[in-house]
Amino acid sequence: MFLSPLLLGTLLNVAQGLISISNNSQLNQILLNLTQYYNPNSVGSNIGYALTSSDYQFVIYGGYRKQAIILFDATYPLGDLLGQPDYLKNRGVSIITIVDGDPDPILANNLTSIASPGMNFSFLDPNLTEQIQSSLLITNCFCPPSYYQMKVFNTTLNTTATYADCFHSYSNNTSPDVAKQTCDPDVLVPVTSSTKLDFIVDHVIPAQMVGAKNFTTGAIRSNGNWNWQNYNNTQFPFGEFPNAVNATGGDIGYFSNTFGFNWEFRSGGSGDDYARPFICQTHAYDADNMRDLGDS
Fold first, then answer.
1. From residue 294, how far is each of 44, 120, 291 by CA, in Å?
2. What is the pTM of this model?
3. Residues spanned by the domain of 112
4. Which pLDDT belongs to residue 21?
C-alpha cells in the first residue's frame, strides 16, 4: 500500500509524501516519527487544507490503486471545505472519519457528515480497528469502468453493504445465446435476491437501459430444475428467490416489468425471437482479482 501521514493543526504538516509500505516495521517507524511535529500551541484544525493536500498527492502519484483518507480529529472549523469532501467522494475516494474522544456533539457531527456512507467512527468504539479494516477492504473492492457496483445502504444502522458484484448492461435486443457469448468470461446476471433486483431496477436500468421493460438473466432450466449460470462454466441452484411459478414458456429466465414497479420472473426460448436487453455480471477487483487497468 501507499501511505502519506498529514498532521492537522493551525497549519498543515505533510510528514511524508505517498510512499510504498510493505511491512509493519516501516509503518511503525513512520508513526513514531510523527511525535516531532507535536505543537502544544496549535489551536484547531484545518480539514480543508488536509483534503486539498491529499487530493494533490493522489493526482501526482495517480495509478490504479484505490484511494482513501483516514481523518482523525475532534472538530473542524466550519466554512473551510469548499466542497472538497463531495468532490473527492464523487471521484471514488473513500473518506473515513474518526472522532477523537468525547467532543462537542454538534462539531463531532460536522466531522462525521463528510465521511463516506457508513465510514464514520468514534475513537471510543471498542471495535474501531475492525471497523477501519472493514472500510479499507470495502475501498479496495471496486468495479471496472462503466460497471455498477452493488451497494445497499441500511438506514437503520447507517451502514453501507458493498458487494463484489459488478453489472454492465446492454440495451439492444439480443438473443440469449449471443448475450451469453458477449458476457464471457463474465456471466449473465444471476438475480438471486429481491435486494439485488431492486438495485438493478433502481440504478442499472435507469443509467444504461432507459425504458427497458425486460432483461435476460443467467437463469437456465435443466431437467426441470432452475439454476444460475456461474463463473468458469459452472452452475448453482435457485434459492428462495425468484418465484418461478410463471416461468413456463421455455428454459431461459428473464425478468419482465409487468406493471408499475413490479418485476416478474418469466422464461422463454434462446433464439432471436426471444431477443431482449441483457445484463452481465463480473467480480469486483481486489488484491486477488486484478485486470490490467493501465495507469488510470
1. 41, 32, 9
2. 0.70
3. 2-140
4. 66
